[in-house]
Amino acid sequence: MRNKFYSIILFLVVLGLQSQAQTIRGLVQDSTGNIAGATVSVAGLKQRAGTDAGGKYEIRLPAAGTYEVFVNYIGYQVERKSITIAANETKDLDFILTTASGNNLEGVVVLGSRSAPRSRLETPVPVDVVDIKKITQNVAQVSLNQILNFVAPSFTSNVMSLVDGTDHIDPASLRGLGPDQVLVLINGKRRHTTALVNINGSLGKGSVGTDLNAIPTSSIKRVEILRDGAAAQYGSDAIAGVINIVLNDDVNKLSANVTGGGFSGKHSDGLDGETVQANLNYGVALSDKGGFLNLSGSFDYRDFASRTTPYRGVIFTDYNNPSLYPAPTGADITDAELVRRGLTRGDFVPNIGQSKNRGGALFFNSVIPVSNGAEVYAFGGLNYRNGISTAFYRTPRQLTQNIATIYPNGFLPEIGTANLDQSIAAGIRGNLGLWKADFSNTYGRNQIDFQTRNTLNASLLAASPTSFESGGYDFSQNTTNLDFSRLFEEPLNGINVAFGFENRIEKYKINPGEEGSYVNYGNAINVGTIANPIYVPSPTGNISTRFAANGSAYAGGAQGFPGISKDNLTNVSRNSIASYADVEFNFTEKLLVDAAARFENYSDFGSTVNGKLAARYKFSELFLLRGAVSTGFRAPSLHQRYFNSTSTVYVDGSFVESGTFANDSRAAQLLGIPKLKEETSKSYSLGFTSNLGKLKITVDGYLVDIDNRVIYTGQFSGSNAAGASAQDKELYALLRAANATTARFFANAIDTRTKGIDAVLSYTTPLGSGNLRADLAGTFTKTEIRGAVHASPLLVGKENIYLDDASRILIENVTPRIKSNLTLDYSVDKWNVFLRNVYFGKVSQPTNVVANRQELTGRVITDLGAGYQFTKNLKLSVGANNLFDVYPAQLLLASQGTSGILYPNQAPQFGFLGRYVFTRLSLNL
């Protein structure tokens, strides 16, 4: 039935697009290619049209005759032409625009409005524009997350470590909110999220974000960042804002670059963490009417980089020398004996810093004209990355987790991650009578599979394999949109009306691993106690001693990353339908008011209605006041509703479950955990912009209240021991009734308030024989939890388990409250120099131990790059990120523990790997 509906809609759209009268049509370009969003008008008439993504336009005229046609686009001089047209005739009229002096083309945006593009200084809400094509020529960063982290103060992301799959998919935050509270679009179409839910102690714990690094930078023209609530316009997730990635549309150009680099700071032995990225982009024109195909490819490689201290714990007790150890005292092996065995204490720590990754991507962007004023467009791509991270070292002393005949010196488990990302969007757009119409379908999928290597399942004893297929996650999203818009020249100074419909289908799967990766086969240790040690051969034939109590059970499942159990197999789906309306009133040339409303219904939790009102008043060319108020929402993801990860343990003569239970599980029901519902928000913003010629200023304040935020709780448990409280005994009974011993959940448990100020100043001027651009930007933001935790009646008094101190810090204090950057970019003749200082404000280390709480003070990171244009086609750039080799504060000794953790791996301030140096060779033909 759905397919028939779509077929009828498509037929009507195409039929309407083919109707015509007296028609002029053509292509608007500049010296670099086609221009989207230019306004084409007819003098003396109300008819006008905007150019599409391919730079094409079409206008129907009321009668035969001679007309003057002109084109406006911000940053360009007005271009005029005359044309004579006969009755029922169609004529082509093309334009080539020239740049107006003193204008900044990077400031033109399409995000946040469904009318014609406008300058970022004239939008009713704040929008940042990042010219990726330009900035990637100068900076050390090569991934999109890291580029934005250093360019946009309101954006935070960093490479994570010791957090399993999150080691390879960097969570990102806008205005200090969660990774799932910012919506990502590509060419204005909704991008799918990842299959991974962040369940470890990192930024965005309990959330599901979008993998921006899956999009190669060579495929990107620019990035637009809308810093305001926009759920009433774009739907779920757009609480903090919207990131729109505009793909490259260059034609008849070949661009290629290779970047190599590595870390060379005080902790590096020469150069470590080496990276290589190769990018290629080529576009070809498909017709003389604006059709094109642009292709991009990339290859990425990065090696391990680690910043650790030697292992401080007991590795294993050695009885090789009776004169030193005449009795089983439990003393550790000597460093001299470690050296004799070819080991050091540094070999017993995990990799903490940067995981290993290798992958590549292919992307395309295309437009094909099909009829009068209509075009078919498509874009999408593939990205595959294979990563390796590590867990904590299993020492020989950890008897229940190791088999000495397999790993006499212990082992360092490796977690292999195969991450496949697929997306494709296709649609048709053009004029349907006096309306613009756009019908599209967008599909995206992310699949993550895990393999645990250099490991074992101790409960299999000596028969254990050393690697396991550990299962994975799969998420797909299919979105169908039908959008209409029209500019009414009258009344007022023009009213732009837009409305549309959306249908989205989402599917989520949890795929189990092989049996040995998660099963405990029940073998127990019976080797004596510390008073009666067991002796086992060491690698050199000497004798080592390891201890365990009689009857201790060997650990089951793959050490380091236990596989996903067949009991956690999940295959669920849902769909949502939505409709929206957006009306933009141009009361005068100075006053603009935009009103939007959106209705959305989800098959799994119900309906929501949201609205937005934004306004802008232009007092003069020098000063503009703007503000907005809106309501928003975020639907709980399928991952949060259905994620479950449990293990089977043997307690009191029976097998029971422990771990994370799905929101609709029996355990959740018995403990009174409500079914997940949408997060709701209220957003307010007020700001001003000023265009002082060479100096441009934007300042915006904001406040965002979010109710019923979804969190990932701590582990609830009970007790039937003598002296246990009545509540703990009740919890114990309820959990056992659900066949569980401990349980954690996703729950709508807190309300938060985020407030702050964003400021951006840009200055451009000729300097000597060259040109200087200076940008100063800063954000001052604070998120705090409002009121008490929303505990279920049965768990009142357990609020500190719902939201422990570490989780509270991850919400309130793990992203810098103050972040600013000063960038200087100077070009002269064949040279260009890039200098940037970024201040990352203080953050807090997430911990539940009061004595280990630590505030990490702010730091300034300096980037420097220089480029030389050898020829028109060949450029060499060299430089460094973190030029002065700055590190965050070291963790307190107690926080470092025994396993070598030196710097805060859970607080993404700016990283802790030190100075990074790079060289880049670019070719443009």
Overall residue-averaged pLDDT value:
87
Tally of alpha and pi helices: 11
Largest sheet: 22 strands, antiparallel, barrel
Give the helix/strand class.
Answer: mainly beta
Percent in strands: over 45%
Helix content: under 10%
* Distance between the first and last residues' Cα: 50 Å
Low-confidence stretches: 8-20, 101-106, 318-329, 527-550
User: C-alpha Rg, in Å?
Assistant: 30 Å
Q: Based on DSSP secondary structure assignment, what is the total number of beta strands? A: 51
Principal-axis shape: globular
Features:
mainly beta; 22-stranded antiparallel barrel; 8% helix; globular
Structure description:
The chain has a 22-stranded antiparallel β-barrel. Strands 1, 2, 5, 8 and 9 form a five-stranded mixed β-sheet that branches. 8% of the residues lie in helices and 47% in strands. With 925 residues, the protein is mainly beta. The protein contains eleven helices and 51 strands. A hairpin with a 6-residue loop joins strand 20 (272-285) and strand 21.
List the helices and strands and how they pair.
Layout: H1 2-17, E1 22-30, E2 33-34, E3 39-42, E4 48-50, E5 56-61, E6 65-72, E7 79-85, E8 90-92, E9 95-96, E10 108-109, E11 118-119, E12 127-130, H2 132-135, H3 144-151, E13 155-157, E14 172-174, E15 182-186, E16 189-190, E17 220-226, H4 231-234, E18 241-247, E19 253-263, E20 272-285, E21 292-302, E22 305-306, E23 317-318, H5 335-340, E24 353-354, E25 356-371, E26 374-390, E27 414-432, E28 435-453, E29 468-488, E30 495-511, E31 534-537, E32 543-546, E33 570-586, E34 591-602, E35 606-618, E36 624-634, H6 638-642, E37 645-651, E38 654-660, H7 666-670, E39 679-692, E40 695-712, E41 716-717, H8 726-737, E42 740-744, E43 746-767, E44 770-786, H9 799-802, H10 805-812, E45 818-828, E46 831-840, E47 843-844, E48 855-856, E49 859-869, E50 874-881, H11 893-896, E51 916-924
Parallel strand pairs: 1-8, 1-9, 15-18, 38-42
Antiparallel strand pairs: 1-2, 1-5, 3-4, 3-6, 6-7, 10-11, 12-17, 13-14, 15-16, 17-18, 19-20, 19-51, 20-21, 21-25, 22-24, 23-32, 25-26, 26-27, 27-28, 28-29, 29-30, 30-33, 31-32, 33-34, 34-35, 35-36, 36-39, 37-38, 39-40, 40-43, 41-42, 43-44, 44-45, 45-46, 46-49, 47-48, 49-50, 50-51
